[in-house]
Amino acid sequence: MTDPNYEIAVSLDCPAWAEALPEVVDRVEALARLTLDSCPEDRPEGALELSVVLADDETVQALNRDWRGKDAPTNVLSFAALDDEEAPVVPGAPLLLGDVILAWETVAAEAVAQNKPLADHLAHLVIHGVLHLIGFDHEEEEEAVEMEALETRLLATLGIADPYQDEDERR
Predict the structure, then answer these.
(1) Strand spans (E) along the chain
(2) Mean pLDDT of 50-62
(3) pTM score, two decimals?
């Protein structure tokens, strides 16, 4: 298989992300690439496109309410385009994987509450969100174990501790 081409759009919709992590846009893009590169057997072949939005709680709460019926912010939402079997595929164009949206206030508060560096928690959530875009899930125990093991392995390559070492942190 040839090296895939990724179009990764990172939108900085909440300036607090860049204030706390000045290189956040480049870091998020690199994390998305790492995730895709580490899962060649799971991701679609060819050129791929995805977006990551660094948003705030208000934005994520509205999306969570409108799309999931949960009127509360959450740390990360993934909207996988591959879940829509009727999504158009344009010959020669990159395959749209979908969108990952992160909520500033929730992610920052979780990092403090879990005594983790914000950059490490962000890395975990970006990897988690991108894995959802390529078909990973954690609804069933077996799926959760597989997804969490992959997240843990990818984070370890970055020198980041296992985010699931405490059972209370499981999703």
Answers:
(1) 6-12, 48-55, 76-80, 95-103
(2) 98
(3) 0.90
